[in-house]
Amino acid sequence: MNIEVDAMKAQSRIGMWFDHHVYSLVASLGRMLRKPWATALTIGVMAVALALPLGLWATLRNVERFAGDVQQSRQVSLFLKTDVTVDRARALAGELKARGDVAQVELRTPEQGLEELRQRGLGDALAALEGNPLPSLLIVTPRVSDSRDGAGDEGALAESLQALPEADVVRHDAGWRHRLDQWLRFGARLAWVLAGLLGLGALLVVGNTVRLDIQSRRDEIGVLQLLGASDGFIRRPFLYLGACYGLLAGAFALALLTATDVALRAPLAELARSYGSGFSLRGFDPSEAGAIVFVAGLLGWLGAGFVTGHYLRQTRPTDI
Q: Start and end of every FtsX extracellular domain (predicted)?
């Protein structure tokens, strides 16, 4: 019999705890709806603070994806001397392909180079030339290095190709890729710093909003303290209020970034097509969007919890 009574009491306590959570959530939403302009201002400020680092992060991720596509074309162009025959160029291509640091070698004969220039509209200028002045060209693709920065291996390959007796000019533009990687690493660090600073700003915005709500309900809180309500019971509605601010701000920040993506996608795709590329912007997938909204809600929850906890530590029933 006692076991049944204890079970009923436990179920009653759980039911009361659940009911108060639901009431706190609904009451928080009601207070937000009663102050639409103040609510919209708070959510807007938080959303902008969240959208700035998120936009920078999305931009860096798209640049990294574009850089990854570019790095797939890491060829070293080896222009042979004009007196090197096509047979010798073909044999040299086979020798280079057998090297461990070379993944692929493509031979472009002088005739192929001349035909390519004709296709680009230079036929009239080429007709005035006597013979074919173009050399054989070997396009050497380095083997992918296991190291994070393969610029050093590619540079060594370019130097070894330049030392070949058949080599005339070696073109290898690896410096810009190395600088791009450095800029991307700096941008990622900057994104984290901005995320920390603006996240702190969003937390303070929620904290100040909750503080004002606490001040307007000071008498109500004092009565609850005199009646013996726990700090958790008093704090709970304000925690839900902060979480609602954060969740709505996170959703609004994603809406701002989506609108920016829609506005920039078409002109960027047109620009990419002019360079013969199919690159396009990539936004946040559903899991990332959900994580962003969750983190925003957590920021609101923490800001409200910090302010409410500070107030309750400073206020005692005898102080009311």
A: 75-152
